[in-house]
Specification:
Blueprint lengths: L1 H16 L2 E3 L6 H10 L7 E5 L2 E8 L2 E7 L5 E8 L6 H10 L7 E7 L4 E7 L2 E6 L4 E6 L9
Antiparallel strand pairs: 1-2, 2-3, 3-4, 4-5, 5-6, 6-7, 7-8, 8-9
Length: about 150
């Protein structure tokens, strides 16, 4: 019974974690309206459905950005690509100590609806998530076919 519960829980978690690309026409109007209100000059490049939420990817001032909204258009979080040099000292120290010789593929600053900031660093298909002070929160292994178009 314990094994079955674990399998079902794991399967549900994986299905919710996988984002699916959706056509803009399939994005609820409140979500599109919230995006246009928050970023009036931005043009959506891609929409994804993540569980019950919608993520829009776009460039703002030539910076790769994504924003997540719930199905009612409520802002959930934003993720803005940053330079490695813009990461907090704690993140740089963690990389230097634990990932010697590894190259940062991508870095981002994440801000949630409450204004809480965290950082994401991608190294060797692993996303390292840090809090605003640079302390490691978690590691997430990326799937090869996650749809990135780098």
């Amino acid at each position: 019974m314990k094994t079955l519960f674990t399998i079902v829980t794991l399967g549900l978690g994986l299905s919710l974690a996988n984002a699916q690309t959706v056509k803009e026409a399939d994005v609820p109007s409140p979500v599109k309206e919230a995006f246009k209100k928050q970023y009036p000059s931005a043009k959506a490049e891609e929409w994804e459905k993540e569980g019950a939420n919608y993520e829009v990817e776009f460039h703002e001032n030539k910076v790769e950005t994504s924003v997540v909204y719930d199905s009612n258009g409520k802002f959930m979080e934003s993720e803005v690509e940053i330079k490695e040099s813009e990461l907090p000292k704690g993140v740089a120290d963690y990389i230097a100590k634990n990932l010697t010789g590894k190259k940062v593929k991508e870095a981002a600053k994440i801000t949630d609806a409450a204004g809480k900031v965290s950082y994401e660093v991608e190294i060797d298909n692993v996303d390292y998530i840090f809090d605003s002070n640079g302390s490691l929160i978690k590691k997430e292994v990326e799937k090869e076919s996650d749809g990135d178009k780098d």
